[in-house]
Design brief:
Chain A is an alpha/beta fold and 230 residues long. The first copy, chain A, has helices at residues 12-23, 41-52, 96-111, 133-146, 148-152, 171-180, 205-217, and strands spanning 3-7, 27-34, 57-62, 115-117, 161-163. The first copy, chain A, has a single domain (3-217), classed as Rossmann fold, CATH 3.40.50.
């Protein structure tokens, strides 16, 4: 059975990615990050999902991105916007996916896994630069030069591959794909500003994209919204 | 004054790199990692060096690479070799420089710094893949696609640059360069297996490269070795 490392945030995209990797026959090793994020309900969701999918191992790695700051998600003095904004929003976390994928790369090397799955999306997304295909391609190229496994690999199949099965489909298509795979989206939390019970604000960028996705997909939205969440 | 992020391990190469960046007129922001390394004396050295060079800020970021394991430096059940070995040695830490540079990238973005200095060396080194020029070039290319700063940069000068001033010189040349810059190498710890007082074993790969470097450079070696350290 081929091993895969799957980045699991606890949101809608990452659970769909995990379900897909499992359906493709991978033995899945999930990795989540406790990075000082405002929405720690997401991490609780990740634990429930890892459990539900009986992953081979679930690592939760502590990294203090709050020490660096610079984002509404890691710095409590910056508010999460509740309306659409222009350009790359303040919820962007500097170098987040680079850092997350770097840890996944190290974990994959220790496991002798050549496959890393990440649920980034460059269609219905917040405009984060580290969700785009050109970033992922550059990361993969770098990753193949970075590791002992990469240096010692004898052919392409032994090289690390970053899988991004959701990168060019819409949120509604992701939800339909997940629904076909039997994903229970009530396990997930997407809100950037969820409360400790995982109830969503309904107004942030992530809530708006998620809600619209369920609408277009014609799938009932299982999200629990807080009162006054529009 | 241009800002630079300097990776500071506390070893000989990183202090030389910091001294060089300062001599080039950069305002230096040092970053070190507490990553479960065996040789925590190195971190104490980094703090002393940061203090000595009056850096603008010194971040020590906690990341638990021991959680991933797979190296003699982060897993106490694997011994540090005391003789030369073939190939990439067990002191190699999976994806370490990728992870370190990723944090430096995030930190640089928050500081609005375009320059990152790292003291990697591909001449007198342990054969780690993530010290080679091709890795650094690929990382820089990826970094320019990863960040908001990279997307919004209007020209090359605003893009992030990874500086590796030591990459193609010998250990002896590094020591001579540092000596010319007034570096006090007694502040540094290179040993992979230093004791809590920072005393070196004299036998590991890192000690061997360092000792030979001082010899060839004709500079007195200020390293304090433990008894029976050969």
């Amino acid at each position: 059975m081929k091993k895969a490392v799957v980045l699991l945030s606890g949101g809608l995209d990452s659970v769909t990615t995990l379900a897909l990797a499992k359906s493709q026959g991978y033995e899945c090793y999930a990795v989540s990050f406790s990075y000082g994020q405002r929405h720690c309900a997401e991490l609780n969701a990740a634990k429930k999902i890892a459990d539900h999918y009986k992953v081979a191992e679930h690592k939760v790695i502590n990294i203090d991105l709050g020490e660096i700051g610079g984002s509404a998600l890691t710095d409590n003095s910056i508010d999460v916007p509740k309306e659409e904004t222009q350009g790359i929003p303040v919820t962007y976390v500097p170098a987040r996916n680079t850092i997350f994928l770097s840890f996944a790369l190290g974990y994959a090397e220790v496991l002798q896994a050549n496959d890393i799955f990440i649920g980034v999306n460059a269609v219905d997304y917040s405009g984060y630069p580290d969700c785009r295909p050109e970033f992922i391609q550059a990361f993969q190229k770098m990753a193949r030069l970075a590791t002992k496994a990469g240096v010692e690999a004898e052919d392409e199949a032994e090289q690390v591959t970053i899988h991004t099965p959701l990168i060019d489909i819409t949120k509604a298509q992701i939800i339909r794909m997940g629904t076909d795979l039997g994903v229970d989206y009530s396990l997930t939390v997407s809100c950037y500003d969820a409360d400790s019970q995982g109830r969503a604000c309904g107004k942030c960028d992530s809530c708006r994209l998620r809600r619209a996705g369920f609408g277009v997909a014609g799938v009932a939205d299982p999200t629990i919204y807080r009162q006054n969440s529009g």
